[in-house]
């Protein structure tokens, strides 16, 4: 939410092109509401960003406010994009807190070609990968995917024992719902992880789990 005080364009103000590039928006949708008098807000809805404006705003004000809100959203999403090193320390913390019996993984990193999975884990070399599609999502959702993949270090399959481990993380069910919603909204065939081995990580003959 923001209070639309009068504001002029200035050199320091990033162009919408810059802000759009920063947050990788597919499309910006502006919705005007007659009930909305003073507040401007924006949120991500799948691939696009929705900006809510009061109905009486001029086209000029609209352009300015779309810029401002895209810039704010970009800043918010940058704060939510942990580096590989931050993912690793997050994973250590989550291991300690929820999966006491497991050692931290050998590595945790972002991958950009994860296909239809949010995350994957190779128990044999104790490596965990998270899909870059998770970047910008709330921390509790990213944490859930981490806990899910870390639980595979103890239990490779999606067995009752596995889900018992995952549910030690208090936001597990909510996060699964969130991810299902994102996948449904984007019509993506995304799953938390694949049960079907695709052979890519089974070259060493060890069991692979997504
Ligand atoms: Zn899994």
Automatic annotation (TrEMBL):
Task: Using the record, list the residue span of the signal peptide; answer none if the entry has no such feature.
Answer: none
This protein's source sits in the domain of life called Bacteria
Cite the YgjP-like metallopeptidase domain residue spans from the record.
94-176
Q: Name one Pfam family in it.
A: YgjP-like
Q: Where is this region: Disordered?
A: 1-25, 190-210
Q: Where does this protein have compositionally biased stretches of type Acidic residues?
A: 192-201
Q: What is this protein called?
A: YgjP-like metallopeptidase domain-containing protein
| Organism, as annotated | Thermasporomyces composti
